Amino acid sequence: MNNKSSLLIRDIGEQGLLKKLQPFCIPGMVGDDAAVLETDPHRSLVITTDVLVDGVHFSDRTTTPADVGWRAVAANLSDLAAMGASPLGITVGLSIPGNLTVSWVESLYQGMSACLQQYQTGIVGGDICRSEGISIAITAFGQVFPTQIIKRSSAQPGDAIVATGCHGASRAGLELLLHPEIGQQLSDREKSYLIQTHQRPKPRLDVLPIIWEIFNSDSAIRIAGMDSSDGLADAIAQICHASSVGAKIDRNLIPIPPTLPKLTSAEQALNWALYGGEDFELVLCLPLEKAQPLVERLGNYAAIIGTITKDLEILLVDPTQVDHQQVLLLSKGFQHF
Amino acid sequence: MNNKSSLLIRDIGEQGLLKKLQPFCIPGMVGDDAAVLETDPHRSLVITTDVLVDGVHFSDRTTTPADVGWRAVAANLSDLAAMGASPLGITVGLSIPGNLTVSWVESLYQGMSACLQQYQTGIVGGDICRSEGISIAITAFGQVFPTQIIKRSSAQPGDAIVATGCHGASRAGLELLLHPEIGQQLSDREKSYLIQTHQRPKPRLDVLPIIWEIFNSDSAIRIAGMDSSDGLADAIAQICHASSVGAKIDRNLIPIPPTLPKLTSAEQALNWALYGGEDFELVLCLPLEKAQPLVERLGNYAAIIGTITKDLEILLVDPTQVDHQQVLLLSKGFQHF
């Protein structure tokens, strides 16, 4: 065996593998949260796929099968929301061992179904197959008017950067499940909020009609964005990379659940918000005059957290302290292999 | 644990599990080869998903990774063809172990790509994830004019049953790969044809334009059908079940590769044709006056193999022998778990 053919997946990692596989894909189709297909002159079809594997994305310790189902669907619907698309349906490709209980699979589908119903959509097909471990491949389809597509690549210097909600809550919920003892200072309600955020995340499809309303008089929506499923820092970095711009983020403006300081240090809370992932909020870049009414309409913890810059660096700054700025680290995000 | 929650997948089998999961799916969407979604008044979107697992659907002994890729795509495009739909693209959800070689995955994508190019379509997205074994979930999308959808449920008594090509060739190819010694009486060309049919099956998308031409003057196409990926007998049975009809098949009219008698007994050859599966031909039910020109235009081994009957039984008859008819056995098809 020569060197090339003995190269392993773990040698090059997920990004390296994706790079190697990109030439096999239709140019321009891969690189956003979902693929956009033209079916007719008026609407674009949006498609996204996620694979969840037992022991990698979920474990019996922190997630019931119903929660696994909810989260799997939520992740896909979040990708649709990140493209500006309304869901049409999903398909489910399930690989499961023969000695799994039927009730486990039923609970999984109950969780998927519960999440889908919340967004007036459903399962439209699928396939089930025997395998050693559990693997769930979901493909979701949505549609969007071509003038309303949200892409990663259209951010412009001067744009305000909006986070549609809290970050760090999902990671805090996971920590509470793994180490219940850290939650002694939290009320049951506070604990349950964080855990619920981790187990039953809500894709932000509700943000779309508000965007459409705010851009109502415009012929096309100029808005860049993606979801923060892989972390807030990752989302900002991906948008900056795709748009060939940089960003300046004010660390004091990042919306963090007010209960987090009762759980951990301020520095750690910020780390969870930046790198924890799975908050499934949207990170949007748009002109300030549109961002302000958006944040007002969204309410809760929606916030303008920074500005897109011409300079390619992504800076995390603290305007309350002189000379306090750091370059955002992006290597802390979740990596397969 | 009570009895219900300890019930295993293998206890109820694939069909039992599917039945249990159907209530979670949008009514009327599941049950055909693919889901049809209305995106606009003129075109319907068609979606199909297949999961392939290492050790279940393929093995290194008989299939190279490139062939695995080709076959995975071919199976999905065949499902589109079976609905009367033209392909728009596919997504790929890949679960693979970290110690797999990169070249294995590249070969897989090369095979997928080669098949997709043959039908002027491509990969539009996907996801890759670490797991213990290899699992490939493909979702394919196509479009069809609503008046040209091919369903399983529209067969009517009196319809001619058409097989668009040979059956049993794929199974013969597999046997040749597993037991090369049985091919002593075959020329290299004959062997390579059978093996190629197994490794690189051709989805019959080419049949669709011929159907459209034959039905040209009609306002809508009345044609029932599905593909024979799970065997010819299974396809006939599924159509009969969905249409609440029966069928009478003439065993002498089933197109079997002429080389098969050199490999095995006549009875075994018929078994391979009926139950072997993976021939990826179409089984179509339509009025005789349309079936005749269809079979003529298709040529090769396309044939009218029987008739749809009012009586619900599916009979395999031999008109050359008195009293020779048997009820088609359907339990020989491939079953997971």
Automatic annotation (TrEMBL), chains A, B:
Leading EC class: transferase
Protein's UniProt name: Thiamine-monophosphate kinase
Family listed: Belongs to the thiamine-monophosphate kinase family.
Gene behind this protein: thiL
PANTHER family membership: THIAMINE-MONOPHOSPHATE KINASE (PTHR30270:SF0)
UniProt KW keywords: ATP-binding, Kinase, Magnesium, Metal-binding, Nucleotide-binding, Thiamine biosynthesis, Transferase
GO biological process, one term: thiamine diphosphate biosynthetic process
Organism per entry: Crinalium epipsammum PCC 9333
Residue positions binding Mg(2+) 1: T49, D50, D127
Short name of one Pfam family: AIRS_C
